[in-house]
Amino acid sequence: MFFKVAISSLITIATSIYFLYYLPPFPHKPYYHSLFTSDSLSDNESISNHLYTLTRRPHIAGSEANAEAAAYVLSTLSSYSIQSHIASYHTALTYPESRSLVLTRPSPDPPVRFSLEQEIYEGDPYAEPASQVEPTFHAYAKSGTAVGPVVFANYGRVEDYAVLKQMGVNISGSVVLARYGKIYRGDIVENAYAAGAIGVLIFTDRKDYGGGGAAEEKWFPDGKWMPPSGVQVGSVYGGAGDPTTPGWPSSEGCERISDEEVEKSGDVPLIPSLPISWADGDVIIRTVGGEVGIGDDWQGGKDSPVYRVGPGPGVVNLTYKGKQVISKIDNVVGIIEGAEEPDRFVILGNHRDAWTFGAVDPNSGTACLLEVAERMYKLQKKGWKPRRTIVFCNWDAEEYGLIGSTEWVEENRNMLGSKVVAYLNVDVAVGGPGFEASATPQLDGLLVHVAKLVTDPDNSSQTVYDSWVSSTNNPKMGRLGGGGSDYAAFVQHIGVPSADLSFGGGYPVYHSMYDDFTWMKKFGDPMFQRHVAVASLWGLVALKLADDELLPFNYHSYALELQKSAEELKDRALNKVVTLVPLLKSISEFEKAATKINDEREALIESKGWKSMWKDGHKIRELNDRLMMAERAFTDREGLSGRSWYKHLIYAPSKHDDYGSKSFPGIDDAIEKAKSINTTESWRSVQHEIWRVARVITQASLCLVGKLT
Ligand SMILES: *[C@@H]1O[C@H](CO)[C@@H](O)[C@H](O)[C@H]1NC(C)=O
Ligand SMILES: *[C@@H]1O[C@H](CO)[C@@H](O)[C@H](O)[C@H]1NC(C)=O
Ligand SMILES: *[C@@H]1O[C@H](CO)[C@@H](O)[C@H](O)[C@H]1NC(C)=O
Ligand SMILES: *[C@@H]1O[C@H](CO)[C@@H](O)[C@H](O)[C@H]1NC(C)=O
Ligand SMILES: *[C@@H]1O[C@H](CO)[C@@H](O)[C@H](O)[C@H]1NC(C)=O
């Protein structure tokens, strides 16, 4: 008996030694990472099928069609063996109930009653489901009637009103006609209100969305441009998350603030507004007399009439009635558990809800999310396991005000705050050619690295990186201070390192009924190879963050960005009593801390043979935690003055343009105020804000260094 066992053990040991010696080495992480972007794993057919299925019907947040789309995402993720569930919220969404717009013209022209409808073209395969598209409206617009002479306010920016004021134009009691294209539409309405307007119409000018307005430019379906009847729908809400549950999750039966309190928050408009087409805007602007706005910037494209500012003589009656409904929204969450550090999360997020069909915005991103999930499933079948946990999030009600992501972040705030390594957002994955990226700066280097590993979908003899830098010699990197997509809660509320990726950025049929599969197939990405590239870039960034033993964060880039922003402050003609010294000092400490942790990181990489592996395990974890938590240190419990949901003191939206990304937003707000009132106290509050920013930067340095004071 004993003899037999011993013999069989010997055989087992011998076979093991034999196999250990002769088997090819186990595939390592880099092997899987290069496999991830290979042709054998990419599948443009499958991406195209996902997009086709997701966009067969319009699927606005809160609709049955969007719940069906959620079920599709859930079952697709589940079919890739990803544990998935739905996280629902009950949120206050608004829908249009009735709208009317009548223009009274000087005699003898008869009044015009606009149909406010987007036209269906001959042979449109989506003609039938188009009847399910909600009438054109602004989400959270104020219900009411505004009757008054029209004033043309250009792009509706603060500087446009400064020009009108300088020209002596009387805006009070007027209905403002403004055009889309430069700032967030909610701020167009807010700026008009602040100037005394009683209602706002926002049109899509052919100059901006129609190829410059030249007659030879063809519109959809013959060309990519917005048709004359096309309307950009969208939200005019200025906050993030359900307006009735500021700072806490909208679970069923939760506490809600009253409509009056919502109005007091300053985030919802106090005057009615409607989005209108170029065709309707053109009819209206022809009835506006008065002077010409100062500068060419006030004129239309080729073939358009001379734009004058008014007021009147054209008078409009704008009437809008909306209804607010507590609607159930569904985030889909899928999880691949990490093998070694399951309690560290890398999150990929994209929203699903669309104003209409949403082929570009957002389901090009959803199709890519599913492609990334499928490729990771294939990697798992070949033996790969992520070191850290990978989480797929498919958000709902982003269009209304980043609601699905914000409610989820508010609900899971503590878990996320202690465990998320990074959040990677893709909203519009593809609107055309050309890679675009924005990130918190410690991720810059990683994005550059990954862009060098992926082939340019529009020119196979170069990489995405080559085409990215071709015009500027430097990769153009945006920052995440704006409120444009679902990264906002992650960066601006809880301080998670984040990135946002896209191909083609802006596209002409944005938020209109023409954003459908036909447009994508004809103009956005005929071969679906740009989608393949986005999936490669997005997935590879996630794989590096999930698998690299030491997190690929470089805080040197952050220090450089902080320095740049501080330099910009020097040019802001500050009052002599204000000093930037505390800020500059904190940034130079931060730079030293970044160098120190980079050196530690290098030393760990060099010392790491298989012998020291066990010893280093907790050291690696500790270093990674410092890299992960340094971003959190930029947040402040009290948040920005007067905008306390925004906790991050380095990045937040501009006060007058929610799309605009500001560095040091608190300092910026204070300077603006001080410049307009010029009191000692107002300049002291600029100094206070400078101190506050300096203090969070010092916190971040201490976090990187990792020693108690
Ligand atoms: C501005 O126009 C409104 C009506 O549109 C009128 O009631 C008001 O008196 C005007 N203000 C001035 C200063 O002309
Ligand atoms: C404006 O239009 C609304 C809706 O059609 C109508 O009820 C209202 O009487 C109109 N107001 C004026 C002053 O014409
Ligand atoms: C494709 O990339 C190569 C290498 O960068 C470049 O020489 C060539 O001009 C590019 N082709 C086009 C059509 O842009
Ligand atoms: C996928 O890419 C191949 C090669 O570029 C192309 O021939 C095919 O038409 C594409 N499929 C779809 C659905 O676009
Ligand atoms: C602001 O006030 C100070 C004195 O309190 C004065 O010297 C300065 O000229 C003022 N600046 C502006 C722009 O009005």
TrEMBL record:
<protein>
    <recommendedName>
        <fullName>glutamate carboxypeptidase II</fullName>
        <ecNumber>3.4.17.21</ecNumber>
    </recommendedName>
</protein>
<dbReference type="GO" id="GO:0004181">
    <property type="term" value="F:metallocarboxypeptidase activity"/>
</dbReference>
<dbReference type="GO" id="GO:0004180">
    <property type="term" value="F:carboxypeptidase activity"/>
</dbReference>
<dbReference type="InterPro" id="IPR003137">
    <property type="entry name" value="PA_domain"/>
</dbReference>
<dbReference type="GO" id="GO:0046872">
    <property type="term" value="F:metal ion binding"/>
</dbReference>
<dbReference type="GO" id="GO:0005789">
    <property type="term" value="C:endoplasmic reticulum membrane"/>
</dbReference>
<keyword id="KW-0645">Protease</keyword>
<keyword id="KW-1133">Transmembrane helix</keyword>
<dbReference type="InterPro" id="IPR039373">
    <property type="entry name" value="Peptidase_M28B"/>
</dbReference>
<keyword id="KW-0325">Glycoprotein</keyword>
<keyword id="KW-0378">Hydrolase</keyword>
<dbReference type="Pfam" id="PF02225">
    <property type="entry name" value="PA"/>
</dbReference>
<feature type="transmembrane region" description="Helical">
    <location>
        <begin position="6"/>
        <end position="23"/>
    </location>
</feature>
<dbReference type="InterPro" id="IPR007484">
    <property type="entry name" value="Peptidase_M28"/>
</dbReference>
<dbReference type="Pfam" id="PF04389">
    <property type="entry name" value="Peptidase_M28"/>
</dbReference>
<feature type="domain" description="PA">
    <location>
        <begin position="148"/>
        <end position="232"/>
    </location>
</feature>
<dbReference type="InterPro" id="IPR007365">
    <property type="entry name" value="TFR-like_dimer_dom"/>
</dbReference>
<keyword id="KW-0472">Membrane</keyword>
<feature type="domain" description="Peptidase M28">
    <location>
        <begin position="331"/>
        <end position="518"/>
    </location>
</feature>
<feature type="domain" description="Transferrin receptor-like dimerisation">
    <location>
        <begin position="579"/>
        <end position="701"/>
    </location>
</feature>
<comment type="similarity">
    <text>Belongs to the peptidase M28 family. M28B subfamily.</text>
</comment>
<keyword id="KW-0735">Signal-anchor</keyword>
<dbReference type="InterPro" id="IPR046450">
    <property type="entry name" value="PA_dom_sf"/>
</dbReference>
<keyword id="KW-0812">Transmembrane</keyword>
<dbReference type="Pfam" id="PF04253">
    <property type="entry name" value="TFR_dimer"/>
</dbReference>
<dbReference type="GO" id="GO:0006508">
    <property type="term" value="P:proteolysis"/>
</dbReference>
<keyword id="KW-0482">Metalloprotease</keyword>
<keyword id="KW-0479">Metal-binding</keyword>
<dbReference type="InterPro" id="IPR036757">
    <property type="entry name" value="TFR-like_dimer_dom_sf"/>
</dbReference>
<dbReference type="GO" id="GO:0010075">
    <property type="term" value="P:regulation of meristem growth"/>
</dbReference>
<keyword id="KW-0862">Zinc</keyword>
